[in-house]
Design goal:
The chain contains eleven helices and 17 strands. With 336 residues, the protein is α/β, with parallel strands linked by helices. The chain starts with a strand and ends with a strand.
Length: 336
């Protein structure tokens, strides 16, 4: 049904289908270039709750309920849920999906979690361990700033290399058949650390990991960049995009003609003051659900390499002067 290829990839002969996807986003995201494509845009960043963290849980619940509704499924029909977020101990996810009563694997891959959850859900479905599996992740600008950087009330200046954490949640339902897009392979990523210590420059921290995973995917599957209609990173932004293109050129691959970055697509740099672009677990998740999958489903793109990128830092490691390692997970999605 499936076999390992190369050093670290998996190819699914029984490729699981993405039968539904849903995107819920905040006001700023709704004002961006993809605004009209989201399933739900909430004008109030609190989402009717009394804390940022509860608001993010509500984001996840709305996204999962929307995806289930599109697939005409009940929560009880989902065998396993693979989910995660940026908050300590995954509280956005655990509180968000608790009422659904679905067996859950909680995941932390920082902003790469969308790729990690899709890869594991695809493995479970392809191997026959689940008829239906769900992958979900989220981020929220205010809860992330509160945990990783400065409270919003502090009013600090943001450097130009900084990215803006996306308020959004993406949910995906996978099954053996029934969709117009399928996951044909995955390349799980390794932790890559170039010693970057600037936590405000996520693009520089994550680009080496993106390079490593994209390179390994091309080697494992014996492909060239042009074998993909798009090679899409999660949230490198404008700074990280230049770095990953340069790093891959050093390895003999030029992805500049097919590269796209979710963090660049989601905001208008000129009008929205987001500096280097968007980031956060929700960045690649809502861009995949609202923009990338529809292009694949209608056949505009036949094969895409989707590579969400994560910066593996915590406030503890950063305050102790540690570097910021990165990780990136590759998911090959094809039209069917």
């Amino acid at each position: 049904m499936h076999h390992t290829v190369g050093k670290q990839s998996i190819q699914f002969s029984a490729a699981p289908h993405i039968v539904s996807a849903a995107s819920v986003a905040g006001k700023k995201e709704g004002e961006g270039p993809l605004g009209e494509k989201f399933d739900l845009v909430c004008e109030n960043p609190m989402f009717g709750e009394d804390s940022w963290e509860k608001a993010e849980s509500t984001l996840q619940k709305e996204a999962l309920q929307t995806a289930l509704g599109k697939a005409k499924l009940l929560p009880s029909e989902i065998r396993y849920l693979f989910g995660g977020d940026l908050l300590g101990q995954l509280i956005a996810t655990s509180f968000g999906v608790a009422d659904m009563n679905i067996p859950m694997f909680g995941l932390y891959g920082a902003c790469s979690t969308c790729g990690e959850s899709l890869a594991l859900a695809a493995m479970a479905v392809s191997a026959g361990y689940a008829d239906y599996a769900a992958a979900i992740t989220s981020s929220h600008f205010a809860s992330a700033e509160k945990q990783f950087r400065f409270p919003l009330d502090y009013g600090n200046q943001r450097p130009l290399a900084a990215t803006w954490t996306v308020t959004g949640s993406g949910a995906f339902i996978l099954a053996g058949k029934g969709g117009r897009a399928r996951i044909t392979g995955v390349t799980p990523g390794k932790v890559v650390d170039y010693g970057v210590k600037d936590s405000m420059n996520m693009g520089a921290c994550m680009a080496p990991a993106a390079c490593d995973t994209i390179y390994q995917n091309l080697m494992d599957f014996n492909r060239q960049p042009e074998d993909y209609d798009k090679i899409i990173t999660g949230d490198l932004g404008y700074v990280g995009q230049r770095i990953v293109i340069d790093l891959l050129k050093e390895k003999g691959f030029d992805i500049s003609g097919v590269h796209m970055d979710c963090g660049i697509e989601i905001y208008d740099q000129e009008t929205q003051d987001t500096h280097a672009g968007g980031s956060g677990c929700g960045c690649s998740a809502v861009t995949l659900a609202a923009h990338i999958l529809p292009e694949i489903e209608k056949g505009s793109w036949k094969r895409v390499l989707f590579v969400p990128t994560g910066a593996l830092l915590s406030t503890v490691s950063f305050n102790e002067g540690r570097s910021v390692p990165g990780i990136a997970h590759g998911v090959v999605i094809e039209h069917c």
